């Protein structure tokens, strides 16, 4: 089954699996309840001389249909918790870091630059075009200059709000090279729908090459970006 | 005493500044239906833009500048007002204001609300609130454009949207509407606790009353918290404070916590009354007692109680602590249980019934059917990791419309069909309303079901042109399909509107109990006079769901009919004052 | 025309708590939630910020506010004695205690104003810092409630000239009393939250 778009991060399979598990559980519940609804409506339509059964309920049935959904839902909750903890509860150790500063309506992507440090004049700053190495965890540090934005890469299944006043760390490890899209998922003003970025996942050596090229292009005066 | 005197009131006192709960209910009804037309029209504009982003709306030149979505800033304004109007001026006032007012005294056997003047005031506060919201269409800068959730800093500082006065009017309007809600809630709670007819103890109340009672408690406890947040937002906008501005020491997420502390219970404010109406309708037209009455009551209570501890599930991706996210996920999963209980009990009520497919019943069945979808799709969002992908996509748009249109509005259509004869003393044409139901149910599903699939594809909500994204381009035909379905859905409503208005004047006269139903409102004339019953209030001998009871030959047994020689179903009846 | 009398028809069972009292209590629950929302916001802002008060900002006058807490508590007590006079059919005592409650309420408001002017002169502005904003908002919203209470109390006291109390006014006094005790209790809560912890 591939109803979701292709996922290219290490955690996208577990999110997708969770999705399909819930789809299966709710799908069964959906079919059973809708079928019963339809069947009862047809089967028990009013007929001459047939009187409805006089009953006020059944405690055993009430118990069953309280406990069964409760158990199912708690199980779904617990398995979601594991996946969630794996994604949001930890950040795998990595030296590859990117800072993304969102603003109306622009993704400003910062790399460390030649000195291996952020917030120095030689930082590489690119707008709306992000590159990452494949098969390597990357820590992404999200900030916002003005309003709330949400960094959304559908192919990674990654979404995280960038909130002014907060610094929020997320991580991703891409599993496939290619070009993907970045979107803003939180209404951020009239340009919200156009706040689009491109994301390229490169082989590690190509990525290093690309980064070196960018570093060479840095004009230090440009450091505090407008 | 004064019964006769009442009929000599002037037109203004009788129909405009009326203190009669039924007139106030009908005032709320007309107000919400008028705003529903506005909100529905805005939805059509939204769908035009999404389905055909590069084509101008045919009648664009006749639209106010602030409504032409070709400018993306206006697109934001249009969907913001669609959501705000539908939530604050249609669904909440029609359920709590219109049906709450009309039904509560009639269903519990009271002559009016506990505080008729306060009741009148609640309408005359709500209407200006609505007009203020509507007036923002005509101010400079246009209406609010930050979504109905109005997240700051976007909503706190005009420089981010270019909307100045419009957003402020939005805040003021919602504050005023909240005040009206609280007034209503005080009245409903007092009336239900204190003014039930002799013999109407709590567990003999129809589920509609239970649902409206629980709703009133939610409104009472949650709305003031929204008011506190709106006050802060207003201060930030007008007095230069920094509640939500991090540069001045404020906290952006504070708004979301306060807002959802109100708005999640508000989601239940918008569905619980419909659940009550649907329970009553299904029991009546299955000619069968509601299955598991007490389970139905306790699940309402459970939903309301849990409703206060799940607000964080709107904030899984907001930057809130992920551990808190887990806690909110578990409480959210648990809140699905009472909803499941209700669904199974509705099915149990249908089982071995004798089902009559009146328009009211068809809409109630549509409610159950769409509520199942809306309830189940909620589980996807409740799961924190899955939510990471589908949060703020069309999946949530599909979910919320399945609950609020499929749920609340089918409940409203059911209730309107069911109680129209009591409200106006005339019958609506049931053939037209059956056709309306077929069309609405079909186009509703064709409009909103595909949105799940858009959401699974990652289609963000609140974007004005999906074709700007490579990964969304393949889905554009589906967007067009949805838009066409939505137009047909909108057009289908003309049938109902026409029937509603025509029947007001030309409908067949209604008898007092056209559905052969049990609850007390059907023992009053249609429409009930001022003070509802003649000299004597009805006395209640049993619960409201004694259909097909073996005690009588007919298939219904009204709550107020004494059975000579037969024991009353419950032994705990306090002796009726004077039988 | 008196709709009030309807609930008292012999056919309807007499409720345990009269409408007006139940309605007032329900209304005050909404009031409590309003302050709960504001206090919640205050606590979030306070505990998310480093220094509270920030450098260079005046501390709140704990002792003045403590004294004022005693003033509003005494006002509540005076109201309680007014209601006791009402029950003891002592209209003169009622009037006296109502004036006492209103007077103490006015003193409370006066001291609140004094406190604000003290802080403003100490450099604490309304919109400059969240420390100032939350303080003025909480005390201001409370003072608005207290002000309407004082006006209401005074009006009742001024109207009470006869030696008897009409039934309708008895109810008004009870409702006003519930409200006034609510204002006092909210202040107690605010005092703890703002000054003590």
CATH class of chain C: Mainly Alpha
Radius of gyration of chain C: 20 Å
Oligomer: heterotrimer
CATH architecture of the largest domain in chain A: Sandwich
**Biggest interface and residues each:** A-B, 84 and 96 residues
> CATH homologous superfamily of the largest domain in chain A?
Cupredoxins -  blue copper proteins
The order of strands across the largest sheet of chain A is 3-2-1-5-8
* Percent of residues in β-strands of chain A: 25-35%
Major β-sheet of chain C, in short? none
Q: Flag low-confidence runs of chain C.
A: 1-11
User: Quick one: CATH superfamily of chain C?
Assistant: Cytochrome c oxidase, subunit III, four-helix bundle
**Outline of chain A, from the CA principal axes?**
elongated
How many strands in all of chain C? 0
| CATH fold node name of chain C | Four Helix Bundle (Hemerythrin (Met), subunit A)
Average pLDDT metric of chain A = 92
- And the CATH topology of the largest domain in chain A? Immunoglobulin-like
Order of helices and strands of chain C: HHHHH
Can you walk through the features of this model?
- The complex is a heterotrimer of chains A (226), B (579) and C (197).
- Chain A is an alpha+beta fold and 226 residues long.
- Chain A folds into two domains: 77 residues, Helix Hairpins, CATH 1.10.287.90; 125 residues, Cupredoxins -  blue copper proteins (Immunoglobulin-like, Sandwich).
- In chain A, the strands form two sheets. Chain A has a five-stranded mixed sheet with strand order 3-2-1-5-8.
- Chain A starts with 11 loop residues before the first helix and ends in a 9-residue tail after the last helix.
- By secondary structure, chain B is mainly α.
- Chain B has one domain: Up-down Bundle (Cytochrome C Oxidase, Chain A).
- Chain B has 15 helices and no strands.
- Chain C has 197 residues and is mostly helical.
- Chain C has one domain: Cytochrome c oxidase, subunit III, four-helix bundle (Four Helix Bundle (Hemerythrin (Met), subunit A), Up-down Bundle), CATH 1.20.120.
- In chain C, helix 2 runs antiparallel to helix 5, helix 3 packs antiparallel against helix 4 and helix 4 packs antiparallel against helix 5.
- The N terminus of chain C is likely disordered.
- Classes of the chains: A alpha+beta (226), B mainly alpha (579), C mainly alpha (197).
- Chains in contact: A-B, B-C.
